[in-house]
């Protein structure tokens, strides 16, 4: 039975590596996969999912205006695949997450989404919020804070090296400006939100 999966974590936890490995496992067993990533995230090149450890694969892309049910159905018509993999799933719209859920239900295709849960201000991304509500299964890809605790938050550092408190939710590139932290250390850098 097909399911909608959400694999989530903070920055630099290895989500793309896990995605590429899972896709490789399918293909190694003779099953095709369908890879998609956000169109505007071209850090690794247009239509490419790449990991910081140096592995990568060509992928189709999605933008806010794409109907992902139609995209998955059209790809199936062009050639069957055993599983769809979505990288940068935090950039999905709520409607697109519903479209993926429909693809799981009506096309009987498993869909594995990989993305960030929260932004640098501790707020859910729209795609992540919808996936937390609709996914059949959720799995955390873990990484650690400098203190050794599990990192669940991320800060964005400015040119001065201090945590940024304002700015656009999305900033493509600049991985070196993001640091994954446990909630305690995130609060120390961002200020305690419960005190406001």
UniProtKB/TrEMBL annotation:
Compartment(s) where it occurs, according to its Swiss-Prot or TrEMBL record: Cytoplasm
Annotated keywords: ATP-binding, Cytoplasm, DNA synthesis, Kinase, Metal-binding, Nucleotide-binding, Transferase, Zinc
Subcellular location, principal: cytoplasm
Enzyme class: transferase
GO molecular function: ATP binding; thymidine kinase activity; zinc ion binding
Its EC number(s): 2.7.1.21
InterPro entries the record matches: P-loop_NTPase, Thymidine_kinase, Thymidine_kinase_CS
Residues that hold ATP according to the record: 9-16, 87-90
Coiled coil: none
Catalytic residue list: 88 (proton acceptor)
Amino-acid positions noted as binding substrate in the UniProt annotation, renumbered to this chain: 170-173, 178
A GO CC term attached to the entry: cytosol
Record GO biological process: DNA biosynthetic process; thymidine metabolic process
Catalyzed chemical reaction(s): thymidine + ATP = dTMP + ADP + H(+)
Binding site for Zn(2+): 145, 147, 182, 185
HAMAP family registered for this protein in UniProt: Thymidine_kinase
Family: Belongs to the thymidine kinase family.
NCBIfam families linked to this entry: PRK04296.1-5
Quaternary structure annotation from Swiss-Prot or TrEMBL: Homotetramer.
Name the record gives this protein: Thymidine kinase
Organism: Pseudooceanicola spongiae
Highest classification ranks of the organism: Bacteria, Pseudomonadati, Pseudomonadota, Alphaproteobacteria, Rhodobacterales
